[in-house]
Amino acid sequence: MFPRRLVRRLAREASYEGLARPRPNRALEDDAMNQTENPPRNRAPGALAGGVSSPVRAGMAVGGEPFVQACGRGAYAYDASGCRYVDYVMAYGPLLFGHAHPALTGGLDAIAARGTVFGSTHDDELRLAERIASHLPSMQRLRFVSTGTEAMMSAFRVARAFTGRSLILRFAGNYHGHFDAALLGAGASAQTRDRSRSGIPEGVAADTALARFNDLDDVDAALAGRERQIAAIAVEPIAANMGLVLPDAGFIEGLFERARRLGALVIFDEVITWLRLGLGGAQGPAAFEPDLTALGKVMGGGFPMAAFGGRSDVMAALAPQGASFTGGTFSGNPFGIALSHRVLDLIEADRELYDRLDQTARRLASGVRAILAARDLPFAVSQLASMVDFKFRSGPAARNYDEASAADARRFAAYYHAMRSRGVLLAPSQNELMFLSTEHGDREIDFTLEAIASSLGELRQQGVA
After folding, report:
1. Which of 298, 312, 327, 350 pairs with 5 at a CA distance of 20 to 30 A?
2. In 3-state terms, what secondary structure has residue 61?
3. Cα separation, 69 vs 64, whole angstroms
4. Dihedral of alpha carbons 215, 220, 223, 227, sign
5. In angstroms, rounded to a whole number, what is the distance separating the alpha carbons of residues 414 and 460?
6. pTM of the shown model
7. What does 146-189 look like in DSSP terms, one character per residue?
8. Residues 87, 77: contact at Cβ < 8 Å?
């Protein structure tokens, strides 16, 4: 728990030395009048491949200059010229407490002074594992890694080792990271429909079955004739990488039924949903007990931390007990572990946290619905906890990747730039969501809704919307 005096002290200790100092805060309305797009970058990408370290940041789906960020504070991102933007990217999900929360950025020297990485296990690591297991009973044993990609890659390997089988069933539009077996038909910014040009070996493709989300008949078709080869069914229980797509009633239950009948495991990818939805993640409210679960994003409080785990007998397949190896120099490093403890401290100390986040997100979603209805735009708005999504696509909310992919890319690109010019930063891809944080309040929501109304009006005048 963080007493107020500690938070105040951490706030004083937090600094932004070395970063471009944002201009002084002023009324959001005044800020909007002075918003400008990022100035053109003053040099070519040079040695940085593609000019970015993750493809979505290049903004290829929307065109124009990618957003170049100088710093972040609370609900805001700042560019190099000092302009601020209400930020709904939130690093694609991890920043549940916004940018540079004082409880997560203050007093870091003391943590580092103990050592930032060990070659040994440490007490805080063991204690964090127990804390996570107390909130996710399905994770009887777990292991720490640094990224969601590592967590899911490791879960795939453990499932294969435990079952002695090789086939993994996945769902089009789900995203489990950038390892070979996860990329075919993946959502997010992955563009891997052409396997050979994407560097994915034929053998990997042969050990992967792909099905349509929310379609149990398609699951059966994908497994037909291969039922005894299936090691695991891997799924985002709440799909958050093709927009926000909720599971139909009975869909997740149907996956468990098939896995149990066929002797396969169920892997939940909760890299986004754990701590976004609550301490129980997506599995808690429905009392699901996946055999393996992957965690990441929010748990590190803005630092690279992830974990995977599950049934004790399944995790016993891991070395040193079993023959399946996973490991890493930075896995369970004391710096990241300490930040994860702080994240859980903040959440456990605030019983109303998720209610407030949900109320704020509901207000944004209902406001967007009203704006769309006033303009006779038949676009569905989805909201769950602190995640909000709508696409330039007529009809009810998408149920799978085929439907999500039918959204109008040209209209979204125009909308993205209109919003950015008005001081609202969205992810440059319709596959991504609007992520809210504890630092988004009524002021930011009102400003955002005004920007949406104005942007859609501008698009209509241009004949785009």
Report:
1. 298
2. coil
3. 15
4. positive
5. 11
6. 0.90
7. SSHHHHHHHHHHHHHHHHT--EEEEETT----SSHHHHTT--TT
8. yes
Tokens for 399? 């149920």
Q: Which residues contact 25 (CB under 8 A, 6 or more apart)?
A: none
Give φ, ψ of 340 to 5 degrees: -65, -40
pLDDT digits (tens, 9 = 90+) for 190-227: 666 676 777 788 888 899 999 999 999 999 999 999 99
Instruction: Tell me if 430 sits within 8 A of 392, measured CB to CB.
Output: yes
Q: What is the DSSP string of 370-413?
A: HHHHHTT--EEEEEETTEEEEEEEEBSPP-SHHHHTTS-HHHHH
Q: Whose structure tokens read 């944002």?
A: 22
Asked if the domains at 4-100+352-461 and 108-348 fall in one CATH topology, the answer is no
By annotation, the residues acting in catalysis are 175, 269, 297
Q: In CATH, what is the architecture of 108-348?
A: 3-Layer(aba) Sandwich (3.40)
pLDDT digits (tens, 9 = 90+) for 146-186: 999 999 999 999 999 999 999 999 999 999 998 888 878 77
- The dihedral sign for the CA sequence 176, 180, 183, 189: positive
pLDDT in tens, 370-395: 999 999 999 999 999 999 999 999 99
**Type of residue found at 46:** G
Closest CA relative to residue 237, chosen from 210, 277, 203, 198: 277
- Domain range annotation of the chain: 4-100+352-461, 108-348
pLDDT value at 11 more than 50: no
- What residue type is assigned to position 95 of the chain? L
